[in-house]
Amino acid sequence: AQSVTQLGSHVSVSEGALVLLRCNYSSSVPPYLFWYVQYPNQGLQLLLKYTTGATLVKGINGFEAEFKKSETSFHLTKPSAHMSDAAEYFCAVSIIQGAQKLVFGQGTRLTINP
Amino acid sequence: ETGVTQSPTHLIKTRGQQVTLRCSSQSGHNTVSWYQQALGQGPQFIFQYYREEENGRGNFPPRFSGLQFPNYSSELNVNALELDDSALYLCASSLAARNNSPLHFGNGTRLTVT
């Protein structure tokens, strides 16, 4: 069964520092992977997605993620953190079981220190 | 382009009551999914509707039911509310029920059951 594990429920970085949020997946078929961001009292906003092709995926707000099949990972990075990046981040794998279903990780809360 | 809109934004109900949540999908999208997000957790898939038919369901009891209308808007109905039903309910729309279709989420309805 497909699943997602996000390592670290809380990550804290200084403004301007590198952001690294970890995601590992389990899938018996080639995965379709997504990163979503959730700001307080809001829904989820798509940051980026991996389907096929290039393994380095660029998203919105300067974020990118690299699909590494050998490591079953899809970590999210941003070279320089901004205060506005403070939010909850969710990694998800998409599966088809009749319906298209996203299986989410538990989320990582990102805090930015001034 | 109009995004996904949900109503109401907040709702307080008593245990045993029934509730209906509403969702208007993004323009051009024919598929609607519903997710439940408990506090501090990732969203959990409830079910998906495609062309007015439920085409997949997660591990939720039958007291969770839904509808999709010809204009692709949707309702989520929950009967016999329990305290554990307190959560953020997210509606998401997509163009088609395929693995690489990103889901576009609304801001959710916060349901509190007392």
Overall mean confidence score, pLDDT of chain B: 93
Q: What oligomeric state do these chains adopt?
A: heterodimer
Radius of gyration of chain B: 13 Å
Rg from alpha-carbon coordinates of chain A:
14 Å
Distance between the termini of chain A: 41 Å
Q: How much of the polypeptide of chain B forms β-strand, as a percent range?
A: over 45%
Our estimate of the beta-strand percent of chain A is: over 45%
Structural class category of chain A:
mainly beta
Number of strands of chain A: 11
Q: Which residues of chain B sit in consecutive blocks of at least 5 with pLDDT less than 50?
A: none
Count of individual helical segments of chain B:
0
- Proportion in helices of chain A: under 10%
Largest interface by Cβ-Cβ < 8 Å: A-B, 28 and 33 residues
Order of helices and strands of chain A: EEEEEEEEEEE
- End-to-end CA span of chain B: 37 Å
Structure report:
The complex is a heterodimer of chains A (114) and B (114). Chain A has strands at residues 3-7, 10-14, 19-26, 32-38, 44-50, 56-58, 64-68, 73-78, 87-97, 99-104, 108-113. Chain A has 114 residues and is mainly beta. In chain A, strands 2, 4, 5, 9, 10 and 11 form a six-stranded mixed sheet that branches. In chain A, strands 1-3-8-7-6 form a five-stranded antiparallel sheet, with no helix packed on it. Chain A is globular and about 45 Å long. With 114 residues, chain B is mainly beta. Helices cover 0% and strands 50% of the residues of chain B. Chain B has strands at residues 5-7, 10-13, 19-24, 31-37, 44-50, 53-57, 64-68, 74-78, 87-94, 104-105, 109-113. In chain B, strands 2, 4, 5, 6, 9, 10 and 11 form a seven-stranded mixed sheet that branches. A four-stranded antiparallel sheet of chain B has the order 1-3-8-7, with no helix packed on it. The mean pLDDT of chain B is 93. Chains A and B meet through strand 4, strand 5, strand 9 and strand 10 of A and strand 4, strand 5, strand 6, strand 9 and strand 10 of B.
